[in-house]
Specification:
The complex is a heterotrimer. Chain A is of the alpha+beta class. Chain A has 4 helices and 16 strands. Chain A folds into 3 domains: 45 residues, RNA polymerase II/Efflux pump adaptor protein, barrel-sandwich hybrid domain (OB fold (Dihydrolipoamide Acetyltransferase, E2P)); 75 residues, OB fold (Dihydrolipoamide Acetyltransferase, E2P); 79 residues, K Homology domain, type 1 (Ribosomal Protein S8, Chain: A, domain 1, 2-Layer Sandwich), CATH 3.30.1370.10. The radius of gyration of chain A is 20 Å and the shape is flat. Chain C is α+β, with helices and mostly antiparallel strands. Chain C is globular. Classes of the chains: A alpha+beta, B alpha+beta, C alpha+beta.
Chain lengths: 238, 256, 246
Amino acid sequence: MEKRNARQTRELVVPGDILDGTGMRPGENAYVLDGKVRASVMGVRNVFQNTVGVIPLRGGYMPTAGDTVFGIIVDIGPSNWLVDIGAPYPAPLHVSEVPWKVEFGDTSRYLTIGNVVLIKVLAVDESKKISVTMKDSGLRRIEGGRLVKVSHTKVSRIIGKSGSMISMLKNMTDCRITVGQNGWVWVDGEDENADVAVAAIEMIEQEAQSSNLTDRIKEFIEKRIPQDEEDDYDEGDE
Amino acid sequence: MTEMMSEIKRDHMMKLIAEGKRLDGRSVTDVREIQVLTDVIESADGSARVKLGKTEVIAGVKIIPGTPFPDTPNIGVLTTGAELIPMAHPSFESGPPGEDAIELARVVDRGIRESGMVDVEALCIVPGEEVWMCFVDIYALDYDGNLFDAANLAAVCALKSATIPGEQYGKGENKPLPITCVPISITEVKVGNTLIVDPNFDEEQISTARLTVTTDDVGNFRAMQKGGRGSITLDELSLCLDRAVEKGAEIRKIIG
Amino acid sequence: MSGHTDMVLVDENGLRIDGRTAEQHRPFKIEAGVLNNADGSAYVEIGKNKVLAAVYGPRECHPRHLQDPTKAIVQCKYNMQSFSVSDRKRPGPDRRSIEISKIISEALEKVVLTELYPRASIDVYIEILQANAGTRCAGLTAASVALADAGIPMRDIVPALACGKADGHVLLDLNKEEDNYGQADVPIAIIPSTDEIVLLQMDGNMTREEFDRGIKMAVAGCHELHELQKDALKRRYSKKAQEASE
């Protein structure tokens, strides 16, 4: 994903808007017409090296190889499962990509419809066929906890600069929190704490544009969960 | 993409509801916020756009002179239709009304008809030959559960504010559509062993049975419909009937 | 286009029955992001037309046999609600609605960057809540905003407006009476960055000169409408665009 440059104008552009006429090359979500670079989606104009593109505000999640995402099993075949990862296409999870030895036709014994899984995107080919795997460290079927779905465009906001936001959330709520690249976030902890963590995540999604968001989230959680003095240790990364 | 609910969410919601709590913080008997706008469509003789939480429905009334049914020669005709149009939910498909839309229309119709809301005897133009025909058409625009109550509200608010277009057809002056009472439906679903009022979409998805009860202004019952593949006990039925009267009166006050 | 009336549609001062001059369009109103479930949505009023558009997608293509392995298809469904017209319309698609759905789908396929989503479908739903001539233009105008609202990549946002002729005058944006009793109706949609035409129909009787004059007015009107389309999106999302950077 392109790095955002803090000194860019934050004005909203819409499809067709001219981003540059001085010869820059088109970046993400932009195209060239008559020598001018134009936006192809609604979002914020973004300059990266000598290209100018758009960081989208809206729009569904399109997976890229290497993304770790949460998914829900929506269909079962004799040698694969179909996983909804919030993309325009379902992702087939083949029996060769799970840590168990699954006999042909025995798939429903391992994963059933409605199960939540943490998987990784292996590849997306030219016809947008998505291949995924559960055969990497940390990948597994997920049980318990809550699954919060937010827009994938807010993932970086939830993680924060160098992970600052998510560390704060984890420490203050004493919950395990894992953020999928598709914007699906898993929260696991004591009921009341998890409620607060979920509410905080939803608040980040709603108010991503606020400038003092970190402080407001801190305040939000403090009001609801008493904070001890010695909660400085790192929970360990997810 | 299919709107499959994760088992995590299902488990969490079922646990909460068993404790009498709901994800959106409501109690088991709370109805979501209601917003009603009437006279929104000029080309209709009556219209209403209703929001029940995030569920949104629009209803329009067209009143047209027509022939009465042979067995009721001096009585006006009332017809209700509903469509679950695809814009309202990713799972709604294009096409003629399916069984859900048909059931919805018939249940709303039953409440209106059995309560005598529209004074159909006052809709006679020429006895035996011509009567006013009221067509109520309901469209779901945004679906987050409980279309029954949202559609009922939209239909009755559209009828309440409707005008018989006498002048358009050279059949006298324009007059308000004669209304005698306002039927209000209250829908509950059973999740586990708990009954919750005004379910949202997720709550409907995990429910086993549904009961819609329509009452009139004095708290008498005019229509009921049980839906879903589960069952309800006699005690549960009794609870629903009590709630339908109480909540029905509250809503009747809100819409005025 | 086939009615006859004694009504004067354009008087001796060049004023139309609603007080407009020949080149004036009816008042426009556009709101973006008006529905919860739809991926993108918009509400448009042009004069007394009231139109709602919603977009879902890109998503799996149904029916499957329509899937295109190289790009997404745009499936538009235009529908008039029963009470949207003065003579109640029976529910269900009629031949007119099917034709309009087709030409709007085709107009949008030209601007949407469909190659980015092979095998998928972009589903566009247009509901006419209240009609007063020019519903297909209002519908396409709303659909374009809904597509941008959904974050679907497209070259430009497409406005549509009609010109026509009544009482011998070439007019912009016909109202119901002018459409019913006039002599020509020409709905047109353009890609504003290039003035390419993506929708064009005509019925009636016009000389070449009248037609050229009408198109010029319609294109100018489309550009004005386009400003409002952009404005509707900016109004809805400008605050959200001011995200703090990493």
